[in-house]
């Protein structure tokens, strides 16, 4: 990967809370209080406009609303990189009427409100803020659960510390390999755990993101992956996210590529794929979502676009019509899709199937298995509930069919495979229990989708 998919840009060094689980209160005086120069910010964003950046996150170790130019920055980022999701996470204290109106009218894609606890007293103790002022008077009622704090690579002194003497061979974070972290003064640091800026990889006042990403960062990551010796005092040795040699988890097996193919609806992102992705990410599994249905729709000419109309759904569903009228038009796209998926470093590939895209999906999987038999192909969705629908795929193409609510079983497949107690029928289908309660299910975010395309 020649350029980061995700950018975390800290546009101000300030925070107005005092969370017990956060190092800010202990490190705030180590660096000058500063707001990022707008020229530097625009330089960073302008470079991103030349690459397929997926997410621009305008916060890191700070409170983003302490930046007086935050709305201007949000709008500039979205105007220059319209395909990227721009988002912030705030503690809510500065959500005045003026700020709320400004954010609502801005080009912001996503905002999270961070508060921790069940009771007002707990929130005040955990975050050092006034609940009534921050939330209740602003109409915010949904309260999240705060549990399991970590020392953040030893930076929170009141929490249990770790130190890894063993050889470190990786990082458990789902973001680290694909994200760059930029401080308010333009420095690129190792990751979000590097609160004291111990590992500075470059300076964007003098260098480009591309140069930093492909320069010292690569050298440091060779060390993190155990290719070179790591100093005894290196940051990763104090971090809970480090993977040590005797407990190595194959990262290729701890992530999933989720795909939906034509033809399906073009007015809304697919709920099933969004639900699976949110659930996996909430359980520390890296996911990448590719909605090739919407991608291909936007690429084809007006004549082909008409095939997505409801009146033409039979052309996709009926084999005799599909192979005569549709398949010949998309042979090159099917080959390109299969090649793209094979090239990606994912062991698990999940396809979401409905009646209109069942045959198209079958042809793509056929090409994938011809090129790479080791890919584990998982197929789920309403289009494979019936045994006759599953027989369309024949023998040997699909490793697992998920019938019903597949979130939990998908997670178990990735974490343990068949060794995790999963059994399957002769035809490869798994029948997970339907979810009876959504009380512990994470809120579906659609954060992997560019909603402007629907």
The rounded Rg comes to 24 Å
Q: Any idea how many domains? A: 2
Please indicate the percent range of residues in DSSP E strands (runs of 2 or more).
5-15%
**Strand order in space, largest sheet:** 4-3-2-1-6-7-8
Mean pLDDT across all residues, rounded? Answer: 83
CATH homology group of the largest domain: Aldolase class I
Q: What is the overall silhouette?
A: globular
CATH class value of the largest domain: Alpha Beta
Q: In terms of structural class, how would the helical and strand content be classed? A: alpha/beta
Low-confidence stretches: 137-148, 418-428
> Helicity level, as a percent range?
25-40%
The CATH architecture of the largest domain is: Alpha-Beta Barrel
Count the E strands.
15
Main sheet overview: 7 strands, mixed
Classify the fold: give the CATH topology of the largest domain.
TIM Barrel
Structure overview:
The chain has 2 domains: 6-244, Aldolase class I (TIM Barrel); 255-453, Response regulator (Rossmann fold, 3-Layer(aba) Sandwich), CATH 3.40.50. The protein is 31% helix and 14% strand. It is built from 17 helices and 15 strands. The protein starts with 5 loop residues before the first strand and ends in a 24-residue tail after the last strand.
């Amino acid at each position: 990967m020649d350029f980061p998919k995700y950018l975390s840009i800290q546009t101000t060094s300030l925070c107005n809370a005092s969370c017990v689980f956060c190092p800010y209160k202990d490190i705030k005086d180590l660096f000058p209080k500063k707001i990022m120069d707008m020229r530097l910010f625009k330089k960073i964003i302008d470079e991103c406009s030349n690459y397929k950046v997926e997410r621009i996150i305008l916060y890191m170790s700070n409170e983003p609303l302490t930046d007086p130019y935050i709305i201007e920055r949000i709008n500039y980022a979205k105007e220059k990189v319209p395909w990227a999701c721009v988002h912030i996470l705030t503690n809510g204290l500065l959500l005045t009427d003026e700020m709320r109106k400004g954010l609502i009218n801005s080009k912001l894609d996503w905002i999270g409100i961070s508060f921790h606890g069940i009771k007002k007293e707990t929130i005040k103790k955990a975050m050092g803020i006034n609940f009534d002022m921050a939330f209740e008077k602003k109409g915010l009622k949904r309260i999240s659960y705060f549990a399991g704090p970590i020392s953040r690579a030893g930076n929170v002194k009141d929490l249990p510390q770790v130190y890894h003497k063993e050889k470190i061979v990786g990082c458990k974070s789902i973001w680290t390999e694909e994200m760059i972290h930029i401080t308010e003064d333009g420095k690129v640091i190792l990751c979000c755990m590097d609160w004291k800026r111990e590992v500075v990889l470059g300076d964007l006042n003098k260098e480009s993101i591309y140069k930093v990403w492909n320069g010292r960062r690569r050298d440091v990551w060779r060390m993190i992956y155990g290719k070179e010796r790591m100093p005894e005092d290196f940051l990763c040795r104090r971090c809970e996210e480090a993977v040590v040699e005797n407990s190595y988890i194959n990262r290729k097996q701890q992530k999933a590529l989720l795909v939906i193919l034509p033809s399906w609806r073009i007015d809304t992102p697919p709920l099933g794929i969004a639900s699976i992705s949110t659930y996996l990410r909430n359980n520390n599994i890296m996911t990448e979502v590719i909605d090739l249905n919407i991608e291909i729709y936007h690429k084809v000419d007006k004549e082909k676009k008409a095939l997505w109309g409801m009146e033409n759904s039979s052309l996709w569903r009926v084999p005799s019509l599909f192979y005569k009228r549709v398949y010949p038009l998309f042979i090159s796209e099917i080959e390109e899709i299969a090649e793209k998926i094979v090239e990606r470093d994912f062991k698990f590939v999940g396809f979401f199937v409905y009646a209109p895209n069942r045959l198209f999906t079958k042809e793509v999987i056929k090409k994938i298995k011809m090129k790479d038999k080791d890919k584990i192909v998982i197929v789920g969705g309403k289009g494979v509930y019936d045994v006759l629908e599953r027989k369309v795929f024949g023998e040997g193409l699909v490793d697992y069919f998920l019938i019903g609510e597949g979130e939990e079983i998908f997670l178990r497949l990735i974490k343990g495979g068949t060794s995790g107690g999963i059994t399957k029928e002769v035809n490869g289908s798994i029948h997970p229990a339907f979810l009876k309660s959504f009380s512990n299910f994470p809120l579906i975010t659609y954060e992997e989708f560019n909603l402007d395309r629907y």
